Structures are given as structure tokens and as C-alpha cells.
Amino acid sequence: MIQPKNIFSILNNELENLNINLTNMIGARHPILYAASQYLFNAGGKRIRPIIIMLISQATSNNSDITSSHKRLAEITEIIHTASLLHDDIIDECTMRRGINTVHNTFNTKIAVLAGDFLFAQSSWYLANLNNLDVVKTISKVITDFAEGEVRQGLMNFDIRMSIHQYIEKSFYKTASLIAASCKSAAILNKNNIKQQNACYIYGKHIGLAFQIIDDILDITGSTQSLGKSSSSDLKNGHFTAPVLFALIDFPLLQTIINQEFENEQDMFRALNIIKQSQGIKKAKDLAEEHIQASLNNLKILTNIAQANFLLIISKYILERIY
User: Which domains does the chain have, with CATH numbers?
Assistant: First the structure.
């Protein structure tokens, strides 16, 4: 049985080729945009999205093949994700990403915006060249969802009235939508029936939400060094996540501190202590586990159950990130 932390090794060759292809797909016609894009790609990343797509490709295939179209879909998904990070870092004024300075800090804000736009444009070009209209329709909707998620997040900054439902909706638009659409697209490319396509979409939706919730827990509990970015950045920016929202229910003092938008030097330290002492982190973990289970419920109707078992290991990997 493969250990969750070793799950990436089963597709090691495919992931190595993916990294090479990402560089080739960006192209070098625009040296500054190329350099800005490469800067983030070279910093690595979890590559969780590509490996899920490749595993879905195998789980929806009779012969466990990962076709060239599926590999290209995985690459497109990673480019779209990277483009969204470039823009997110500007909006959230992040100084670090994946252990290095953010692109807008290294170059400037204008270059970072243009580099993000450039990557979105490149992904659209390669998406069109898959020559599958259903996949184009499915993936292109994600770009709209990104914008919807950012607007929703911006409107709810430092708003303690935000509900868990609103948090989940925002997390879907900002994170889970891309994974859901990509999983469905993998099934479309394998010519699976509508029921299987929708099962892949729902799987991706819930695994994406679980991944985001775990990320949000780590933002509270992790260090800057382990995260590769500033810890507690969401809280500092007034973006309330599951651990914070659950803690707010039990601790009125946290509401008072947040209403002051951390104007005093010790406010952030006090807020983090309250969250860690509350049941917020445990409840957030329970919520992530609920979404993991909801995702796994959709694997039963896939074509290749043996390959689908690797998706179970991915679920364990996602949960083990908080230990």
C-alpha cells in the first residue's frame, strides 16, 4: 500500500514531463512575461491538481491510460492555477509565495498583472487546441468563477457576519471550481457517460473544498517557513476562514479584536491564541473530513475501480498535511 506522502511517486515521470512542458508552453517570445511566469513555476508547488487529473484519467479509462490530451489538460489546469496566484498575490498584497518573493515584489505590479493575463491567454489557446467543445465550455467557466470568488471575498473583508455557507461558496469559486471542472473534463475526454462526468465533477468539487479548508487551517497553525508564505495572511487581510468563523461563535472577544482590524501591535497575536484555544481548528478539520467523504462517495461508479483507489490515497495525503 502506497503511503499518502509517496503518492506523487506513482506518476513521477509524468510530473517531470509536465514541468518541462509548462516551460515550453509559456514560450519565450516576451522575455519579461516569460521571466515573471517562470519565476513562479520554478518555485515548484504541490502539483496536486495535475496528479488528480491524471488519476481521474486512469480511473475513467478501461485500460488505465493517460492520453496526451489528458496530460495537456493537466498542464492547462496548472497554468490557470498559476495565473490566478499571480493576481491573488497582488490583491492580497502577499510578499512571499512558495518560499520566494512574489512576482509583483520581484518585478512590479504591472508586470505581475500582465504575466497573469499572459498565462490565462496561453491556457485558453491550448484549451482550444484540445478540439473538444464540451471541455472548452467546462474549463472556461472557471475564469468567471475566479472573478466571482475574488469579488465575494472583497465584499466580506472584516465582516464577522460571514457564514460558513458563504465561506464554502467563496472557496468553491476560488479553489474547488477549477479542480471540479478539470476532473469532469478528464471524464469527457475519455467519453464517459454524463452520470460519470458529473460524479467526477462532484468529486473534484469536494476534494477541492477539503484542500482549501486544510490550507486555511495551516494558515493559522503553520509557520512562514513551512508554508512558503506569510502565516496568518488571510486573517491579517480580513479574509475569514473556517477556523476563524468557528472560533468567532464561541469567543466574543475575538469579534472585538477583529472589529478593530488589528490596529494594535498585539492584536494579531491575541487573535491567533484565541483561535488555537477554541474548537475552531477541530471543527474546521471535521468539515474537511466531511468533504473528503463526500468526494469519495462519487468514485463508486467510475470505470476503473483499482485506479480509483489511488484517489483515496490522495484524500489521505490532503488530511495528513495538518499533522
Answer: 4-320 (1.10.600.10)
